[in-house]
Write a structure and sequence with these properties.
- It is a single chain.
- The protein is built from 13 helices and eleven strands.
- The protein is of the alpha/beta class.
- Strands 7-6-5-8-9-11-10 form a seven-stranded mixed β-sheet.
- α7 crosses α8.
- The protein starts with a helix and ends with a strand.
- InterPro entries: Arsenite_MeTrfase-like, SAM-dependent_MTases_sf.
Length: 301
């Protein structure tokens, strides 16, 4: 049964429900955990297990002491901002941490008063739902293809690509030796090394790798970790190296939003074209539709 047939059957079924009971049924469909359990497949369980192992080895904000540039960048934002890694923490887990006092969603506008405002949360990783969306809805069949994740950090894209795609090679590029070690530990523990590799390298040294890549993933990769001039240099290198026609580029946010780094529209049009993405997919209550819409897909022209 395909989706159209399922929708028809569902409408027929709802038409048979007593009108007075219909609101209760619709509320159950929207809010019950029972339906979400149908979406809890073994792949998601594996990713959640990896996230649990990583949480045990990292501070709550999942930031390393060496990430001074990123921390400084967050401090410069107009509103107080904290890093909450979406791969490590679901919304329910964030709520639990707030209840325990280990995290807060608000900050005090006037010390000692009851005037508070919400903190801004940012993440440098995809959530489990976003990984599922990326590999099952955004990207095509990746059989025989190579995926490169720039700034692989905790390895979320690599783990997600392993369980949710048939990509033959998943390669992460990471500058932090500590994060490289952490990713390799997870690859070894969960037996993912047959298709996944993490390189301790700057993307600007990987021309040959980019030339052969079929998919390049860049999730919020430079803004918090490089000075603007270095960001421009990195983008210029990527645009020169990642040139094979038909290769796919995934970015968060869109290239237009990254335009402040010197990515001019005329240059982008000569490099890639944006492809449509169907965001109308239900992936469970943990999936944030607004976050899904931050994922953009491009094809090298």
């Amino acid at each position: 049964m395909n989706a159209d047939e399922a929708r028809l059957k569902l409408r027929e079924l709802l038409g048979q429900v007593n009108p007075s009971e219909l609101p209760k049924l619709l509320d159950w469909m929207k809010n019950s955990d029972e339906l979400d359990q149908l979406l809890l497949d073994n792949n998601k369980v594996i990713l959640q297990s990896i996230a649990e192992d990583l949480r045990a080895r990292l501070p709550v904000d999942a930031m390393l002491p060496s990430e001074t540039a990123a921390q400084h960048k967050m401090q410069q934002r107009q509103r107080p901002t904290v890093h909450v890694d979406s791969f490590l923490y679901s919304e329910d887990q964030v709520d639990a941490l707030c209840e325990e006092g280990a995290m807060s969603r608000n900050y005090c506008l006037s010390c000692g008063s009851f005037r508070t405002a919400p903190l801004d949360f940012i993440s440098h990783s995809f959530s489990v739902s976003e990984l599922q969306f990326l590999f099952q809805n955004v990207l095509p069949d990746l059989s025989g293809r190579t995926v490169v994740d720039v700034g692989s950090r905790l390895g979320a894209v690599l783990y997600g690509g392993y369980v949710y795609s048939s990509a033959s090679r998943l390669i992460g590029l990471e500058l932090s030796e500590d994060f490289v070690r952490l990713q390799n530990d997870m690859l070894h523990k969960y037996g993912l090394s047959d298709r996944v590799q993490v390189l301790h390298a700057n993307v600007c040294t990987q021309e040959v790798l980019l030339q052969g890549a079929d998919v390049l993933v860049m999730n919020n990769v430079f803004e918090y970790f490089m000075e603007p001039t270095k960001q421009i240099g990195a983008w210029k290198f990527i645009m020169q190296a990642f040139r094979r026609r038909g290769a796919l580029l995934v970015t968060v946010p869109s290239l237009q939003e990254i335009g402040g780094c010197g990515l001019y529209a005329a240059v982008l049009k000569s490099w890639v074209e944006e492809l449509p993405v169907d965001y109308n997919v239900y992936l469970g209550r943990d999936a944030d539709p607004e976050e899904l819409r931050q994922i953009h897909l491009y094809r090298v022209v």
